């Protein structure tokens, strides 16, 4: 792991605060000493490849799964000791539906779900159902993956919880409904003060929403930072190099990605721009371009296993 990447946020009010979460399934390590910090009011993008530990982390926050070591707090409440209160303040979209009662109709499920949430807004739930093009008379067992996802989104949003845990919320949706869902989420955040932890492979879709990012790989939190810190600390440098160039040894440990072609090299580097440029030019290279990365490109760089 690149030691220079930040894994702790600055001090502040945290909606989610975990300390040293460790979880193992047999010989497989799902989480390894994960300390996640989600500021209150943030839209926190949690990224990583399949099997990185994202879904496990969300389940630990809801006490649907318990870590072998470490602790987790949601709004200052220990998730083991205060699990019902924590869940009452969370809207959750799981990665997989796993209803277990496919005979039940959508309308009946929503009525049953609403009984557990005093803040349930029936009018808002009806508007969400309309937006998501859902019918209350459909049985859960015949819903497509996309339809099931929209039911879960309605259940998660309609009681306007202070925390949303969304695990692949647009998975299974067609392009039109993905766009509609992201619009609903943006409107929801504008109308209701909410903290969001959002796990998705479709990073490009949340470019305009996410203001913090956490990067999980092989159960380890490789990086955690605000978008402002990401934008100021990560750059792509296009450098022309002379024949026989020997490289820049002093950049070791900060380079996340390196692509070479003929006499030009592109580096994706974490660190102060002025310092990086000075090291590159001091080695004999000519810096031709310094560019900020899109969120998807930054995510790919942070997940690069060869750093």
- Say what oligomer this is: single chain
Given helix and strand content, the structural type is alpha/beta
**Whole-number average pLDDT?**
92
**What is the CA-based Rg, rounded?**
22 Å
Poorly predicted segments: none
β-strand amount: 25-35%
Helix content: 25-40%
SSE pattern: EEEEHEEHEHHHEHEEEHEEEHEH
> Could you give the order of strands across the largest sheet?
7-8-9-4-10-11
In whole angstroms, the N-to-C terminal distance is: 7 Å
- Major beta sheet, specifics? 6 strands, mixed
Q: Count up the helices.
A: 9
> Outline, from the CA principal axes?
elongated
Task: Count every beta strand, where a strand is a DSSP E run of 2 or more residues.
Answer: 15
Overview of the structural elements:
The structure is a single chain. By secondary structure, the protein is α/β, with parallel strands linked by helices. It has 9 helices and 15 strands. The strands form 3 sheets. A 6-stranded mixed beta sheet has the order 7-8-9-4-10-11, with helices on both faces. Strand 13 (255-261) and strand 14 (264-270) form a beta hairpin. 35% of the residues are buried. The model has no long low-confidence stretch (mean pLDDT 92).
What is the topology?
Elements: E1 14-25, E2 28-34, E3 37-39, E4 43-47, H1 54-61, E5 69-74, E6 77-78, H2 83-88, E7 90-93, H3 106-114, H4 122-131, H5 145-157, E8 163-167, H6 175-191, E9 195-199, E10 212-217, E11 220-226, H7 227-233, E12 234-240, E13 255-261, E14 264-270, H8 273-282, E15 286-292, H9 295-302
Parallel strand pairs: 4-9, 4-10, 7-8, 8-9
Antiparallel strand pairs: 1-2, 1-3, 1-5, 5-6, 10-11, 12-14, 12-15, 13-14
């Amino acid at each position: 792991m690149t030691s220079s990447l930040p894994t702790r946020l600055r001090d502040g009010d945290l909606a989610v605060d975990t300390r040293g979460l460790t979880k193992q399934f047999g010989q497989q390590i799902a989480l390894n000493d994960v300390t996640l910090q989600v500021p209150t009011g943030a839209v926190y993008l949690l990224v990583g490849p399949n099997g990185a530990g994202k879904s496990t982390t969300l389940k630990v926050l809801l006490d649907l799964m318990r870590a072998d070591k470490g602790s987790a707090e949601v709004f200052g409440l220990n998730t083991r000791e205060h699990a019902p209160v924590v869940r009452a303040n969370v809207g959750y979209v799981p990665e997989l539906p796993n209803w277990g009662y496919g005979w039940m109709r959508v309308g009946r499920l929503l009525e049953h779900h609403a009984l557990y949430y005093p803040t349930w807004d029936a009018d808002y739930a009806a508007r969400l159902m309309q937006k998501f093009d859902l019918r209350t008379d459909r049985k859960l067992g015949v819903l497509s993956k996309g339809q099931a996802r929209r039911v879960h989104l309605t259940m998660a949003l309609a009681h306007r919880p202070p925390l949303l845990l969304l695990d692949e919320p647009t998975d299974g949706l067609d392009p039109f409904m993905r766009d509609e869902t992201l619009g609903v989420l943006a409107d929801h955040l504008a109308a209701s003060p909410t903290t969001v932890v959002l796990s998705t492979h479709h990073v490009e879709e949340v470019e305009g929403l996410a203001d913090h990012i956490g990067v999980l790989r092989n159960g380890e939190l490789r990086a955690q930072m605000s978008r402002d810190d990401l934008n100021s600390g990560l750059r792509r440098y296009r450098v022309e190099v002379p024949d026989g160039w020997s490289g820049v040894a002093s950049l070791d440990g900060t380079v996340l990605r390196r692509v070479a072609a003929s006499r030009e090299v592109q580096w994706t580097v974490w660190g102060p721009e002025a310092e990086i440029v000075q090291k590159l030019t001091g080695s004999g290279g000519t810096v031709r371009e310094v560019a900020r990365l899109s969120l998807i490109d930054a995510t790919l760089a942070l997940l690069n296993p060869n750093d």
